[in-house]
């Protein structure tokens, strides 16, 4: 074993730029290595110690002055039922939105135009965070009209999924807007451990995408699939979308944001969506 240990020590010394070791160095290194394998100087050459974070992503990235929680729903509808589904949701969901006894409000309601077909997307805001969410869910359990709505809706769906979201502190809070507009929901699934880096880069870059009021909202997942980011944009039409996105590339600094954030992404997708009649975002 001695020749093998000596060979490793010499290689390590050459990496450090130190002098060639003598026989006494080999013996000392062997004794030191055998005392505590975990804390040896050899291991310290290759192990980078990382200080643990003291705060959760939700604390570092979300807005401090509000306690809004968001829920996004994706409903895949049977193709032959899409019109009936839209009519049903337009009849029932506004009642929850307008009822002050329910601490929830509609942010936006859409059908996917380009992307996953025959799909409805709903975005809700719960003012008051998780307590507001639970209050709303408990009240809905005894809402006979809503229970009947869910039963009828279930006959129209192929599948559904949802996520609980928080909004990035540096994005606009979604506000009702007049139309007509089309909306793009860009979804980024990040590599685990990269959310803070994503937020730091976009906090600097969002200024490049606000001249035409296209930035609607930015969110990251808290429950459901994790390390998922949703950016919501509004455009007058597809041509306006193309011109606005191209204009961003002519602004110094936008290319750097793309350069540093693309390696953080493991998957991304885009939906072009058309608002329903009841959507506050038109």
TrEMBL record:
The keyword Transit peptide applies. One of its GO terms (biological process) is sensory perception of pain. Keywords: Autophagy, Mitochondrion, Transit peptide. GO terms for cellular component: mitochondrial matrix. Residues 183-280 form the NIPSNAP domain. The keyword Transit peptide applies. Pfam families: NIPSNAP (PF07978). It is found in: Mitochondrion matrix. PANTHER family: NIPSNAP-RELATED, PROTEIN NIPSNAP HOMOLOG 1. Belongs to the NipSnap family. This is Protein NipSnap homolog 1. It comes from Mustela putorius furo. The lineage of its organism: Eukaryota, Metazoa, Chordata, Craniata, Vertebrata.
């Amino acid at each position: 074993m001695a020749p093998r240990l000596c060979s490793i020590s010499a290689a390590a010394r050459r990496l450090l730029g130190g002098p060639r070791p003598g026989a006494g160095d080999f013996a000392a290194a062997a004794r030191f290595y055998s005392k505590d394998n975990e804390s040896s100087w050899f291991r310290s050459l290759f192990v980078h110690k990382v200080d643990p974070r003291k705060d959760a992503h939700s604390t570092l990235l979300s807005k401090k002055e509000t306690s809004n929680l968001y829920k996004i729903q994706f409903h895949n509808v049977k193709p032959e039922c899409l019109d009936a589904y839209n009519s049903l949701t337009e009849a029932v969901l506004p009642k929850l939105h307008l009822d002050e006894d329910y601490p929830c409000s509609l942010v936006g309601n859409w059908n996917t135009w380009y992307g996953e077909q025959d799909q409805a997307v709903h975005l809700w805001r719960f003012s008051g965070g998780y307590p507001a969410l639970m209050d709303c869910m408990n009240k809905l359990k005894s809402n006979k009209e809503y229970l009947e709505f869910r039963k009828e809706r279930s006959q129209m769906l192929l599948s559904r999924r949802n996520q609980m979201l928080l909004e990035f502190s540096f994005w606009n809070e979604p506000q009702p807007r007049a139309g007509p507009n089309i909306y793009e929901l860009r979804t980024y699934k990040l590599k685990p451990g990269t959310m803070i880096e994503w937020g730091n880069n976009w906090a600097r870059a969002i200024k490049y995408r606000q001249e035409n009021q296209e930035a609607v909202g930015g969110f990251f997942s808290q429950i459901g699939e994790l390390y998922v980011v949703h950016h919501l944009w509004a455009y007058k039409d597809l041509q306006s979308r193309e011109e606005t996105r191209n204009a961003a590339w002519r602004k110094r600094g936008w290319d750097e944001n793309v350069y540093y954030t693309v390696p953080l992404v493991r998957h991304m997708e885009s939906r072009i969506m058309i608002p329903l009649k009841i959507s506050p975002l038109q």
